[in-house]
Design brief:
The complex is a heterodimer of chains A (116) and B (113).
Chain A (H helix, E strand, L loop, with lengths): L2 E3 L4 E5 L4 E3 L2 E3 L5 E8 L6 E7 L6 E3 L2 E6 L4 E6 L8 E9 L7 E3 L3 E6 L1
Parallel strand pairs in A: 2-12
Antiparallel strand pairs in A: 1-4, 3-9, 5-6, 5-10, 7-8, 8-9, 10-11, 10-12
Chain B lengths: L4 E3 L2 E4 L5 E6 L6 E7 L6 E7 L2 E5 L6 E5 L5 E5 L8 E8 L8 E2 L3 E5 L1
Parallel strand pairs in B: 2-11
Antiparallel strand pairs in B: 1-3, 3-8, 4-5, 4-9, 5-6, 7-8, 9-10, 9-11
Classes of the chains: A mainly beta (116), B mainly beta (113).
């Protein structure tokens, strides 16, 4: 069984602060995909990143960066110099590949509130 | 380039009724997946349609069924509605399977009273 844990239910920061959203996953597969999505109040999930289990390189995209560590089964997401527009619920998700299903499991999400 | 569209935006139904939700995928996409998102939870995968057939299914009862049309648009049908079916229903489209990048629509908010 696969499982995704986002232990932080809600994080509140002031604009320009850096913030890290944690994601810990469980899987028996050696081949899998990890995702992060952003869900603003409008409800539409916005794809942010996909990593496969064989690519542990950290990635940076503008103010966003991701730290993938297989040794600790974590895929954490950092926003640098947060902005009010970053306020949203962020979901981490896992898709197992070896079973052939690819069915994604989402975490319960972390609500990020950025105050001006 | 139109993204994923869903209709209706909101819907209120009574227990025992049936409901149909609709989704048009992003231009060029051939695969549609449906998710149920209860309040305060992450999305849960219902099923995926490709080439007009159900290709993958999550842990949902047979009351949940779907269809994909030749133009790749899709419908989600839920029969014998229960109060617990109240949720945001999200449609996602992709080119290829679930490991591909999925584009989500704004969702349909279903309330069952």
């Amino acid at each position: 069984a696969q499982k995704v844990t986002q232990a932080q239910t809600e994080i509140s920061v002031v604009e320009k602060e850096d913030v890290t959203l944690d994601c810990v996953y469980e899987t028996r597969d050696t081949t899998y995909y990890l995702f992060w999505y952003k869900q603003p109040p409008s409800g539409e999930l916005v794809f942010l990143i996909r990593r496969n289990s064989f690519d542990e390189q950290n990635e940076i995209s503008g103010r966003y960066s991701w730290n993938f560590q297989k040794s600790t089964s974590s895929f954490n997401f950092t926003i640098t110099a947060s902005q009010v527009v970053d306020s949203a619920v962020y979901f981490c998700a896992l898709s197992e590949v070896e079973q052939g299903s690819y069915i994604p499991t989402f975490g319960r999400g972390t609500s990020l509130i950025v105050h001006p | 380039d139109a993204g994923v569209t869903q209709s209706p935006t909101h819907l209120i139904k009574t227990r025992g009724q049936q409901v149909t939700l609709r989704c048009s995928p992003k231009s060029g996409h051939d695969t549609v997946s449906w998710y149920q998102q209860a309040l305060g939870q992450g999305p849960q995968f219902i099923f995926q349609y490709y080439e007009e057939e159900e290709r993958q299914r999550g842990n949902f009862p047979d009351r949940f069924s779907g269809h994909q049309f030749p133009n790749y648009s899709s419908e989600l049908n839920v029969n014998a509605l229960l109060l617990g079916d109240s949720a945001l229903y999200l449609c996602a489209s992709s080119l290829g399977g679930l490991g591909s990048e999925q584009y989500f629509g704004p969702g349909t908010r279903l309330t069952v009273t």
